[in-house]
Specification:
With about 260 residues, the protein is α+β, with helices and mostly antiparallel strands. It folds into three domains: about 100 residues, Tetratricopeptide repeat domain (Serine Threonine Protein Phosphatase 5, Tetratricopeptide repeat, Alpha Horseshoe); about 70 residues; about 60 residues, SH3 type barrels, CATH 2.30.30. The protein is built from nine helices and seven strands. Helix 3 packs antiparallel against helix 4 and helix 4 runs antiparallel to helix 5. The chain is globular and about 80 Å long.
Length: about 260
């Protein structure tokens, strides 16, 4: 189980001006890491949460926060923050490792509906880079494509024109793919329809309210999909694609 904390969050992952506010964030960040190193995990989590509310989200912050909650045996809160980190940086191996570990120790084991091989492969490729990573790659490919186009237009050699045109066509395809994956990653960040149960135990009801019939019980750490919101209740469906019902909003956190 990887429990190392990230230490470059304020300098490399957050975008806010170097003012008194950022100095405060630096100070809180240092205190949070010190508390974590001393085993004061509750204090560390509170400090990370404060940075989150004041300076904004980042994969590194959610990762550290997940570690602090896991050390307190708060499996639901840990997975929620690991999932949020994974949403922002799906290619990070440490985040993926910790997610796999939390899934292994959670109470509920759901037989998930498996994607087709090609769909799974497509998702794996899309998850190799973050949204910003795919965007950067798109601009790099576009720059090289324009360079090849320049040589194609102004070259007098037929062989050079053929090679540069073939290279330009390839870069157009790769650029289009990187743009698509970047857009898809961004859409996934904005369309937050999944949630993690962080209450110790939740009874899923047939209707939104205490009067509904009890359907089944789920436990902290389980990831579900929210398909409807009504008042203070979520209608959720499990990853088996069949089991669904209503739970109180306060029992789960949206990824």
């Amino acid at each position: 189980m990887l429990m190392k904390i990230r230490i470059l969050i304020v300098l490399s992952a957050m975008s806010f001006p170097l003012t008194a506010a950022s100095e405060s964030a630096d100070s809180i960040w240092t205190k949070a890491n010190d508390a974590y190193s001393k085993g004061e995990y509750s204090e560390a989590a509170q400090a990370y949460e404060r940075i989150l509310s004041e300076a904004g989200e980042s994969a590194e912050l959610y990762y550290n926060l997940g570690n602090a909650y896991f050390k307190q045996n708060l499996i639901g809160q840990a997975r929620l923050n690991y999932e949020r980190a994974h949403r922002l940086d799906p290619g990070d191996p440490d985040i993926r490792h910790n997610l796999d570990f939390v899934e292994a120790v959670q109470t509920d084991k759901i037989d998930e509906v498996k994607d087709l091989f090609f769909t799974e492969l497509f998702n794996d490729v899309g998850g190799m880079l973050s949204s910003s990573g795919w965007t950067t790659l798109f601009f790099v490919l576009t720059a090289f494509g324009l360079l090849l186009l320049y040589f194609f237009v102004f070259s007098k050699s037929l062989r050079t024109r053929k090679l540069t045109f073939a290279g330009f066509a390839l870069l157009v395809l790769l650029g289009g793919a990187s743009f698509f994956f970047g857009y898809r990653q961004r859409a996934g960040i904005l369309n937050r329809s999944e949630a993690v149960i962080y209450a110790a135990e939740v009874t899923v009801k047939s209707t939104p309210g205490d009067s509904g019939a009890d359907l089944f019980i789920i436990h902290e750490g389980l990831k579900v999909r929210v398909i409807e919101k009504q008042g203070n209740y979520y209608r959720i469906i499990l990853n088996d694609g069949k089991s669904q019902g209503w739970i109180p909003r306060e029992s789960a956190g949206i990824i």
